[in-house]
Amino acid sequence: MLEVLDLHAGYGAVPVLTGISLTVEEGGFAGILGHNGMGKTTLLKTLIGLLPATAGRVRLEGEDITRAPCHERARRGLGYVPQGREIFAGLSVLDNLRFALAAKGGGEAQAIEQVLEELPRLKPLLERAGGALSGGEQQLLALARCLVQAPRLMLLDEPTEGIQPSIIETIAEKLAELRTTRGLTVILVEQNLDFIKALSDRVLVIQKGRIVRELAPAQLDDPALLTEFIGAA
Length: 233
Fold this sequence. Notes:
Blueprint: E1 2-11, E2 14-24, E3 29-33, H1 40-48, E4 55-60, E5 63-64, H2 70-75, E6 78-81, H3 93-101, H4 108-118, H5 135-147, E7 153-157, H6 165-181, E8 185-189, H7 193-199, E9 202-207, E10 210-215, H8 223-230
């Protein structure tokens, strides 16, 4: 589904990605681990089009999207849930979902109804302002905002950061369910080892802007490997 070939990107004159290559098959769930500052978030921002690639190629279902703008990538089925959630704090939950659908056009009621069935904890919160939600509720809203656009490939950046364990469990259960019900493909950047291990088919390790190792989820139980590649034990 996704093919990334020798991708380079950065911020101004500062290079961050220095030759990323990876593939993700349809229906797959790929986790990405690495130290802070190694390029995890930069990779997702480049894939969604928030940062321009300075070299390399990104192909989605065989089509080159390397220079495509964000909205075109979204229309082709690429979804993004950013680190920090970035919901509209002054808008209600319902208006956050409506805003996400504004560029897509059509099917608003049906799309929102489907997402609320998948994430029922949001149903009693529809009129509440996004900024009045707990961190976990905001993360569910960020996930719902992505899902209303019916993505086929979702990019998730640190979805468990700063939220309570009960919401983490809900998100893990829903992501596993969505792989079956929606046929969703996922790339997950995450530091919560239990979360990434439970969901991922394979775990890619990023160092200095490159993928340097692929691990099976069971290998995340090996303290020596974790210390070597991500600095955790």
